Prior knowledge:
Layout: H1 2-55, H2 59-67, H3 73-101, H4 113-125, H5 129-137, H6 141-148, H7 150-165, H8 169-194, H9 206-210, H10 214-243, H11 245-258, H12 260-278, H13 283-316, H14 325-350, H15 354-417
Helix pairs in contact: 1-3, 1-4, 1-6, 1-7, 1-8, 1-10, 1-11, 1-12, 2-3, 2-5, 3-4, 4-8, 5-8, 6-8, 7-8, 10-11, 10-15, 11-14, 12-13, 12-14, 13-14, 14-15
Membrane topology: Multi-pass membrane protein
Subcellular location: Cell membrane
Main location: membrane
Amino acid sequence: MRRLMRNIGWLLGGRGFNAVLSLVYLALATRTLGLEGFGYFALIVALGQTVTGIANFQTWQFVIRWGAETENAGEATGFAIALDMMSLLLGAILATGLVYSTRFWLPLPSELHGLALCYCLVSLASIRSTPTGLLRLRFKYGLATAADAVQPIVRAAGAVLAVLYMPDVTGFILAWAASEVAVAAAYWIIAARDQKIDFSQISLFRIPRHHPEAWRFVWSTNMSGSLAVGGKQVMILLVGAIGGEAFAGGFRVASQLGQALVQLAQTVSKAIYPELVHAQDNAVAIARRMAQLALVGGIVAVGIAILFGRWGLVAIAGPEFRIVYWAMVILAVAGAIELVGASLESLLVSAGRAGTAFLTRAAPTLLAMALLPTAMEWNGLKGAAFTILGSSALAVIGFYVAVLSLAKIRITIEPAETPQPKV
């Protein structure tokens, strides 16, 4: 627990630094572009993150899972890099089809289609899951935090330059693209300096040869990651498709401010997963304690959103974004629920139940997407926020039930495996 809390401290420190600068570039973008212009910007960013999220295999998880075994460390890294290459190829095909289909369903002007495709390709080339896994495998969270800090610095600086020299959607997208390239380069450089990467072991076949369950784990974690993106980025695209670019811009602001807790949940998940892999005997107890701490933090954060959220929206984004206050509060509650469920989901994945975790999140996410048109017709952005709240609540309840079953299995099996003394 001491090491876990120290690692979470590093990650939260990086998140805190990122959060402060994110307020700077969010304020610059919203006030410069306005509600509709920011809506176009939000749609392009959501397209890039959707493509990357769907195509990206969560390679950091199996770098930790199989790299923890010393004899497999090089092969695990080679397998992860090979999957990253496959992500880039498949993602480029997906990006091309998705961007050029937007004319039929998304309110994105045709003159921005080329910019959107370029941003998608840059995002794919900037995938950094493998070096992230290498640093977490060796518990180098301080180095990972230093690499993460590159992104908000470059993004904030780019936003300032965009305001001064190119105050339009293109200028801000270029700033975001530059930050993606910079942080990916920082991760690879730091990971390679910490320990040499043997590129001769790049292969899609070596790890699966020794671990027959590898591909099942790969596809389960990939689909879970895609669903995590679907809960946020795809919802922004759907909100834009149903309500227009202004709705998309407003929903992104509400999501970025209200669902900051989801990012915190992802931080907790990334810190706790290596510990659960290395300490299977105490995994349930660690996850339970983290969920209790998360509950307290979530309640505090929701209270802050209720009391100061309206003032924060006006101060950061401007008066025209005041209308998204209640959507932001609802998303903050959803974020608090996700925060509690983060350690439970990590526990399932670390125990080899990635498929269970995926199915538990898949059903609520697909239900939320199906209900979104009705919810928005009922209550606009607040209705959209309620679909995410319901999805998060159902998923975390499912994680809890699955963890109870997992604990029961362990309690039942472990005594039977204990050798009985001979009489």
